[in-house]
Amino acid sequence: MAPAGIASDALDRPHFIGIGGAGMSGVAKVLAMRGARVSGSDSKDSPIVGALRELGATVHLGHAADHLAPDITSVVVSSAIRADNLELVTARERGIPVVHRSDALAALMDGSRPIAVAGTHGKTTTTSMLAVSLRTLGLDPSYVIGGDLDAPGSSARHGDGEIFVAEADESDRSFHKYAPEVAIVLNVELDHHANYASMDEIYESFQTFVGRIRPGGALVISADHPGARELTARVTGGEGPRVLTYGEDAGADVRVLAIEPHGLTSEVTVRLAESLGGAEITFTVSVPGRHYALNAVAALTAGAALGVPARDLAPALASYTGVKRRLQLKGTAAGVQVIDSYAHHPTEIAADLEAIRGGAGEGRVLVVFQPHLFSRTQELGTEMGQALALADASVVLDIYPAREDPVPGVTSALVIDAAARHGADVTAEHDRSAVPELIAGMAKPGDLVLTMGAGDVTDLGPEILARLQSPES
């Protein structure tokens, strides 16, 4: 059964514009695994595009009207696709149904027991933790994640089990399309300034999402995060869903008693409320940092809400060893570890730097940071710079624009100046190609280098490693 507004056969032969994107590729992959004849286009070739082709998808490079085959049943788009995209314009001219990615994902979840993971930060990690641990238990979930677990194309899978785990994106309000049995809200902060003007708008959006939880379902939400507590107060009472809280707060339904770091792993002890069995459980989280430990507790709570025994799920969570771009070790050269981080919001930057600090030992933490979006930098540039002061030294690149046009007066100088005001050792670098040489001159054995941001800064990791390995180093 398709969601309202989508014909039942619309996803039989879908064409995805921007099929290689993190969110789009996951939906395309699950559809291909379910037997749909998938086609799509993307601006460049990539390992993700290659993985889709291996599943039988037809993927064109570049955008052209003739990429839309005569028999396609829909064109799938995300909010990142501009209205003047040639393939989108052609689809509208030909009367081909245009389906938003979120509607396609909602259709995929229909008939399953969905867990939708929302929040300003931590969605990809928490969704991944659930997907991996449920697979470890043999429950064979379907999932769509905003990042690859271990290989290109591993962001999504069609499973034979009844559970469907999906990342629920609040940035464009598309998470209003889902009707989960269990919804997770990790945190609530102001972000996506092009779409939200205030915290009140953010709260209203999350309230709509919570209102979509199926009858008899549950909301799993942080007991510690101020924004999450405010949201809990707004949705508690009446005929809303069952609310299960997690965190270090004494009143949490799944209370964190201890988080003990051990290098790049943590040992977590929790106590479950009597309604969840009343047990005290200790388990390992195989990635560093308190925020990742708390994400694992959110996953544990969601599993318990769905009826998966916490004593079984807790040890299975240790099988999650990371996702690409979430403190992913890219390699080591000349005694220097190079790690990639997707962090682009000040809270994420600070959390990842604190996590890495615990694993750095006597070494320094060096950051190559690329601000993401003009709108975000305009609103949060000062806070970004303040967070970078947690590093021993930072190199800041120009803003990665993604889908946005430049904003007069908004440059990475907003971040650099704020970092300097907070005592940071910060360097501006406008030439990306100069970064490997610059870092090679700064890094010493034992140091950790983080490439950080949501743009193409990730591509610098291998280049930095290559430069560190070269004789000139």
What does this structure look like?
With 473 residues, the chain is an alpha/beta fold. Helix content is 33%, strand content 22%. The protein has 14 helices and 21 strands. The strands form three sheets. The chain has a ten-stranded mixed beta sheet with strand order 8-7-9-6-10-11-12-13-14-15, with helices on both faces. The protein is globular and about 60 Å long.
List keywords for this structure.
473 residues; ten-stranded mixed sheet; 33% helix; globular
Question: In percent, how helical is the residue content?
Answer: 25-40%
Rounded mean pLDDT score: 90
Main sheet makeup:
10 strands, mixed
Estimated structural class:
alpha/beta
Beta-strand percentage?
15-25%
Count up the helices.
14
In whole angstroms, the N-to-C terminal distance is 60 Å
What's the β-strand tally?
A: 21
Based on CA inertia axes, which overall geometry fits? globular
Whole-angstrom Rg: 22 Å
Quaternary organisation = single chain
Strand arrangement within the widest β-sheet reads: 8-7-9-6-10-11-12-13-14-15
> Low-confidence segments, ≥5 residues, pLDDT <50?
none
Protein name: UDP-N-acetylmuramate--L-alanine ligase
Pathway: Cell wall biogenesis; peptidoglycan biosynthesis
Keywords: ATP-binding, Cell cycle, Cell division, Cell shape, Cell wall biogenesis/degradation, Cytoplasm, Ligase, Nucleotide-binding, Peptidoglycan synthesis
Enzyme class: ligase
